């Protein structure tokens, strides 16, 4: 997880670019595969949270949807009081971020 934020924090500009977010896709995919082997995504409570967070947005573009989801994830992660809470919140956002990235890739293909 730290790899994702390090990849973006090396940026000298104050605004994150969509291409930088997309560059983290392989890390999100790896985390998804690791978490998927547990029961985390199939637990009723977690599944309902992911489904609720995964609603389609009225963003002007798929890039805006990814950026806003990323910012929401960051805001939620910053409220974590323990490493366990941080990991759980992060894991909830992984499939949503991947869905947003896939939407962008489909448009650009």
Characterize the structure shown.
- The structure is a single chain.
- This protein is 71% helix and 0% strand.
- Helix 5 (62-77) packs antiparallel against helix 6.
- The model has no long low-confidence stretch (mean pLDDT 83).
- It is built from 6 helices and no strands.
- It is globular, with a radius of gyration of 14 Å.
- Biggest sheet features: none
Low-confidence stretches: none
Radius of gyration: 14 Å
Total number of domains: 1
Number of E-type strands: 0
User: What is the number of helical segments per DSSP (H or I, 4+ residues)?
Assistant: 6
What is the SS-derived class? Answer: mainly alpha
State the gist of this model.
This protein is mainly alpha-helical and 109 residues long.
